[in-house]
């Protein structure tokens, strides 16, 4: 198949590109490099079935090629990054999604949207099922991400209902792994970077808030399975193992062997208290469940982070 994937230079997108190429597909990666990095695609420069287009997906993409899928992964995903880019974030998920749906319509392609567990906001239902409508503050700072992803989901379903376009929506829960930007401000990257550079691990609030952390290979497996299953609504993809932020800090300390301390900082506004996916639907429809434990995934992530920090260090010294 020929697949156009936006956000290809980002953390998740680049892993999906690798897997699609390994499955024999032709991939056109699109990215404006706002939060992504071409280093994530460097190994593909001469790949015969990969092509990269630098482009802001909020603008129309003139492409004459026939496409089987348009997969929309472009959007800042880390809270500090989307809070720094509030309008861009709202636009890539609204105008960007519209432009890409129009492209899919014109090319007769199916559409795949990377949505997020953030559509559940600060959930009043736990764990979160796809049928839960969420608890989002529409004018809070995080709304630029949450509400625009909710709009994107609505728009995708509108194209499906009005035009019969085949669509897929995944709600991704916190995902980590190699290639994450170590300076993106997310919990796993902050703790790993702090631990490896001997700085205190910054816990926001008291650290009792929870997250469920999924290793990126598990997510990619779920995505590929969903491409082959005829279902149009959203499916949660996440690891139901739930950890407090304090426990994540302890695990990172163990995995890195750091003597760094833990310090406590103010909790950001509207920071969700609990998050954990109900993955019954993914189990039933995709026969999928995560395979990688936090212990194993963290070890692999720390290993790559050490290499990245060392090479950054070398570049700074040079
Ligand atoms: P990322 O920031 O690493 O990747 C996003 C990519 O999109 C970047 O390469 C960026 O340059 C690109 N991009 C942003 N705006 C663009 C625009 N207007 N035009 C073209 N490219 C643009 O983030 P990620 O963690 O890889 O997230 C990828 C997708 O998965 C996002 O849609 C995000 O909402 C979703 N998601 C991720 C997580 C997670 O834990 N990583 C959780 C939930 C949802
Ligand atoms: N967090 C933290 N210290 C950090 C970064 C994040 O305690 O250095 C907390 C954050 O307040 C949130 C959780 O860790 O409760 C997950 O944050 P992240 O930004 O990774 O993703 P979110 O799930 O909030 O989108």
TrEMBL record:
Location relative to the cell: Golgi apparatus, Golgi stack membrane
Matches recorded under Gene3D superfamilies: NAD(P)-binding Rossmann-like Domain
Leader sequence residues: none
PANTHER family in the record: UDP-GLUCURONIC ACID DECARBOXYLASE 1 (PTHR43078:SF6), UDP-GLUCURONIC ACID DECARBOXYLASE-RELATED (PTHR43078)
Stretches assigned to the NAD(P)-binding domain: 4-298
Entry GO terms, CC: cytoplasm
Origin superkingdom: Bacteria
Official protein name in the record: UDP-glucuronate decarboxylase
Source organism of this protein record: Alkalilimnicola ehrlichii
Metabolic or biological pathway, per its Swiss-Prot or TrEMBL entry: Nucleotide-sugar biosynthesis; UDP-alpha-D-xylose biosynthesis; UDP-alpha-D-xylose from UDP-alpha-D-glucuronate: step 1/1
Pfam families xref list: GDP_Man_Dehyd
GO molecular function, one term: UDP-glucuronate decarboxylase activity
Organism lineage: Bacteria, Pseudomonadati, Pseudomonadota, Gammaproteobacteria, Chromatiales
Any Gene Ontology biological process: D-xylose metabolic process
EC annotation from Swiss-Prot or TrEMBL: 4.1.1.35
Key words, A-Z: Decarboxylase, Glycoprotein, Golgi apparatus, Lyase, Membrane, NAD, Signal-anchor, Transmembrane, Transmembrane helix
Cofactors (names): NAD(+)
Family classification: Belongs to the NAD(P)-dependent epimerase/dehydratase family. UDP-glucuronic acid decarboxylase subfamily.
Bilayer topology annotation: Single-pass type II membrane protein
């Amino acid at each position: 198949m020929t697949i156009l994937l936006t956000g290809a230079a980002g953390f998740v997108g680049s892993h999906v590109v690798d897997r699609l190429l390994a499955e024999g597909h032709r991939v056109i990666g699109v990215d404006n490099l706002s939060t992504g990095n071409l280093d994530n695609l460097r190994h593909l420069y001469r790949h015969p079935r990969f092509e990269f287009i630098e482009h802001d997906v909020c603008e129309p993409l003139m492409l004459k090629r026939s496409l089987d899928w348009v997969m929309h992964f472009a959007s800042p995903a880390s809270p500090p990054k989307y809070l720094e880019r509030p309008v861009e974030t709202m636009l890539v998920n609204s105008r960007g999604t519209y432009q890409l749906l129009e492209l899919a319509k014109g090319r007769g392609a199916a559409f795949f949207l990377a949505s997020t567990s953030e559509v559940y906001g600060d959930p009043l239902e736990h764990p979160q099922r796809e049928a839960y409508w969420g608890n989002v503050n529409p004018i809070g700072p995080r709304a630029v991400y949450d509400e625009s992803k909710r709009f994107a989901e609505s728009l995708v379903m509108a194209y499906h209902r009005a035009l019969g376009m085949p669509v897929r929506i995944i709600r991704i829960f916190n995902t980590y792994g190699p290639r994450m930007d170590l300076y993106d401000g997310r919990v796993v990257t902050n703790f790993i970077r702090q631990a490896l550079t001997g700085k205190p691990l910054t816990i926001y609030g008291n650290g009792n808030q929870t997250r469920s952390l999924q290793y990126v290979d598990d997510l990619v497996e779920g995505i590929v399975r969903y491409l082959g299953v005829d279902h149009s609504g959203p499916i949660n993809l996440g690891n139901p193992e739930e950890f407090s932020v304090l426990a994540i800090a302890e695990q990172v300390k163990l995995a890195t062997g750091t003597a760094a301390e833990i310090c406590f900082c103010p909790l950001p506004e509207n920071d969700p208290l609990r998050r954990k996916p109900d993955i019954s639907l993914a189990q039933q429809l995709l026969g999928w469940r995560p395979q990688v434990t936090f212990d194993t995934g963290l070890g692999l992530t720390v290993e790559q982070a050490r290499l990245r920090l060392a090479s950054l260090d070398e570049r700074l010294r040079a």
